[in-house]
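User: What would this chain look like folded?
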Amino acid sequence: MELHLFNIANFKVDGGAMFGVIPKALWSRVYPADPDNLIVLALRSLIVETEGHVVLVDTGWGNKQDEKFFRHVYLHNGEGLVKGLANRGYLPESITDVVLTHLHADHCGGCVRKNNDNTGYELVFPRATYHVSRSQWDWAVKNNLREQDAFLEENFLPLMDSGRLNLIDDDYESSFLRDFSLRMCFGHTPGLMIPVIRYKGKTIVYTGDLIPTTAHIPLIWNMSYDIESLKTIEEKKQILTEAFENNYILVFQHDEKVECCTLEMTPKGIRAGRKFSFSDIGNV
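Assistant: Here's the prediction, encoded as structure tokens.
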């Protein structure tokens, strides 16, 4: 198995939205905001090459929306999606599978682009099978007022139209490939999939939007974007307890500064332990 992690881009969101009921006086100590109350998030994608598969986990914002849309998310830095793959020796045609943790725009927008004459859409990864949980698909297609700005149909309906969409049933943990499973969660949005990977004798949890940054490890430090916050707390507690007891490594999709960490027990509960770059996983 070969793993790569790269940052597609950084973007900005409102810090209050990212920390929900936690007062700014507390969260800003560990994740500072700019004068407009915006915080910088990373947007990391994971490549897993194993058993003849080249799997890409999440695809970022994409580039289909107009300039006004992207002004609101302040995209900057990062490698870009296709360039980030190329920097690691992969072409779009190399990707056999795309795993979408969920269908919010910052996680699936890079699957689809406008075609050359701007009359429709085409898949960025034409040979890939696109994997989404059945619950998330049904929820996104139905849409709702709370998430309507996050579920953009042009990002995911072309996947169904292409015939390359695979819906994964909502078992607690689905075996995707050998040493690669998908853990189902429902607090952030129904059918959020959390990749759990066994690699070089270690277990790696790609925490996605369940635990977007190290600052979100405390159980009640959660996003206002979560649809069912009490479920988020229970799901975090379960995964963090398991991870601490078994020395798992957490990989963060959105933490601007920290790619990975171990966990340690403190008087306040489970917290981030050693923080390190993804390239150092083999040395931990």
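Residues 8 and 83 are 9 Å apart (CA to CA). If you want, I can go into more detail on any region.
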